[in-house]
Amino acid sequence: MVMVDTSVWIDAFNGRDTWQVSALSNILGKENVYIGDIILAEILQGIRSDKDFENIKSALDRFPCLSVLGKQMAIKSAWNYRLLRSKGITIRKIMDIIIGTFCIENGFTLLHNDKDFLPIEKYLGLKVVKK
Domain of 27: which CATH number? Predict the structure, then answer.
């Protein structure tokens, strides 16, 4: 089960040639690919035209969309944030610690292109797709 982060979807929709976009292309149809509700919101919020919004929303509709935050996940995410901060690491975006925590707690592997996930992998055991 693979959760694909906003960073990879944006690169894919913008036609960027990254190893993560290639990995996404390779896993489509071979593995179960999921999108989180906050990832969906992050992707869609940045789209300028109504036509592009509808096209991208339709393209993403084929993937199961999971709710990644509830009370227990909020508490666990805050705990993980504090743990990393105690090690001198500050995650810049709260969404990243939420997504990382969700993946850890639910056994997902994360495909991302965002350096904020690196300490989550190193210190908290986040499984990630490797190059």
Answer: 3.40.50.1010
